[in-house]
Amino acid sequence: MNNALKLIIALATPLLIGFSGSLFTISEIENWYQTLQKPSWNPPNWLFGPVWTALYVLMGISLFLVWRSAASQKSTAIILFALQLVLNFFWSFIFFKEHQPGFAFAEILVLWLMILLTIFSFGRINKVAAWLLVPYMSWVSFAAVLNFTIWQLNK
User: What residues does each domain of the chain span?
Assistant: First the structure.
């Protein structure tokens, strides 16, 4: 498979997973989510879409850099990437569709750990690929604190 096709697939994968997860989110923003107590530092709703889109693009580029490498450990790294992407998808489902901020908080902690493992795994193959995941890790860290706070405010 040539690199152009790999790049398209690597970019499309997180974007499609993210879009799929947003289907649970969009319908709940004006309904259930609107009724929740949120901290004063909660970002405006319009910010989440552009931020996640940028993060998914960075994730796709990161995946591409690892996928095109000849490193023997790239299969493990790609599996870790896939696992964290699945967890990313399910967080939206658990939080927004199932209305379970406590369970979503537990899940986002596992997601955070999987992102960390993915960063370390990618870093052994391509340092740029690992660094491209740092904004994602930072945003998920912020999201975890926000998730926890919303859970606590709405017990």
Answer: 3-153
